[in-house]
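Fig. S4 source data, part A: sequence.
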Amino acid sequence: MEYRRLGKTEEKVSVIGMGTWRIGVYSRPEERADQVRALKRGIELGINLIDTAELYAAGRSEEVVGEAVKGTREQVFIASKVSPEHLMYDDVLTACERSLKRLGTSYLDLYQVHWPNPSVPIQQTMKAMENLVAAGKVRHIGVSNFDVGLMEEARSSLSKVDVVSNQVEYSLRSRGAEEEILPYCERESLTLIAYSPLGRGNISRLGISLDALSRRNVTPAQAALSWVTRSQQVVAIPKAARVDHLEENAASASLRFTEAEYDQIASR
């Protein structure tokens, strides 16, 4: 597994993480057990970044993650997110406490603002986030779905720590981050956490050139993940619901192509 520096910190996170959107959605106990098993397998494979949110499955995603990391908490880097309706100062503090309880941990490695809320001053949200860091309940602060202007506003609202990451959609199919967000992250040494790096699971719609894979024993999903993470400032969090998919995703971490091959992979 390859690990990359988180923002300007000394923290190292796996280049391939585990996304948990829709984990926590199940109709039978066996389905929940399968989800826990998949997350545990990811940890065994060296994946230490697990991303969740209070919004996912109404909090049950955090509960599943909490069950999966029992006994291995110090080996993993847990990132969660506060919902846009909870960005007032007191609401941020309360939301964090609830996430900690569901996860069964005393601290979050990364706490992110899930979506911006224009009705709440970002200064108020960041003040709460910074106080959570001071209290030892949060180690690092991140944002999600922020444009460059909002990222700068969030960073300028902090006095003792800095934002370390921005989580945005980024894949062969969704390349908007390349216009401003990725260049900004590369310039400022911030981490871009790519969600839906496999085009929301529809690999066939990513437009990968199969000719580019003919000389390599790799799958389209592995090529897509390698392409997304070709910048050192990017880590990806594909969904982690199945053991076989996790093993396939993890194997992409050490897979690297030439720039010409990356161009060919992205050709349509």
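Fig. S4 source data, part B ends here. Strands lie at 3-5, 12-14, 18-19, 49-51, 77-82, 108-113, 138-144, 163-169, 191-195, 234-236.
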